[in-house]
Amino acid sequence: MRDVILGLVGVGRIGVMHANNIAALNEVLNPQGINVRLRLTDVAANHARAVAAGLGAEFLPSVQSILASGLDGLVIATGTGTHPELIKAGVDAGIPVFCEKPVALNVADALPVLDYIRDRQGVVQIGHQRRFDAGYQEARRAYQAGELGWIHSLRAVTCDMTPPPVEFLASSGGLFRDCSVHDFDILRWLTGREIVEVYARGSNNGDPAIGAAGDVDTALALVTFDDGTVGTVSATRYNGAGHDVRLEIQGSRSSLMVGLDDKTALASAEAGITFPAGEPHRTFAERFDQAYRSEMAAFVELILGRRDNPCTPEDAVAASRVADAAQESLATGVPVRVAQTVAR
Fold it and tell me: Which residue has the higher pLDDT, 58 or 264?
């Protein structure tokens, strides 16, 4: 049995989810002769100890101690502002790194991190989990196989049921950087094309504290791709029907929607239509449970040399560049060319 030792830094909401997913990997990997072991740390030491005890993992008191313990891979699930230095620390340790998106708070801060990784030939996977969702993967396959024809428009939607704490919003970088960056990434990944221009608008009709934090609770961006194709990316913090993430793809031969199932947080106004029949998702963790599990399994496969990097830092920064352009357009009220984005 070969041990793969993962170190997890950060056991907040997303970190606990990753810890549980890592612990569950052995159900699949043990029969293959692979045993994943988890070590974790967090500044909230008592909470981290409790998480470790519940999962049969090992708690260590600091980032330095966890890196010195002999790891096969590092998982970073801390606040965005800490990502650059932790990525560098993992690269310096000579181990593959998984880091939650984004690489840094903005593109200006991320670019030196990219240089650091390249100069040292580091292996870093960034957490854009929608790439592992079965619906998005099927849509990409159908498009690449020519089943949709040429795409004439796309519509991406990300709707939270309720907003996160205002304390989080103040450091999130804005709705486009926090939420819509997932849509920007998946549009690039699915189409294989670059977004070259963004025109964004937004509004605040909910908690005034969101506006006071410098953010909006609802926003929409018109995006233009390098081949002239257009699309829209919309997001809101207030969607009482449930957590709603969808992608509509209209093609010259056929159309597809990702996220249209019995849990879609949307009702029909037509008489006699009972679809969807199930309870809607309430959180992103519910909606993308399978994707998050597959994402962490892919990181272990990357460590073992069994696959290529499924989401490189360059991929993540390209999506962040579009998000920066959207935030700039939102602030200025004019369209912004992505190549000319000024990181704010």
Answer: 58
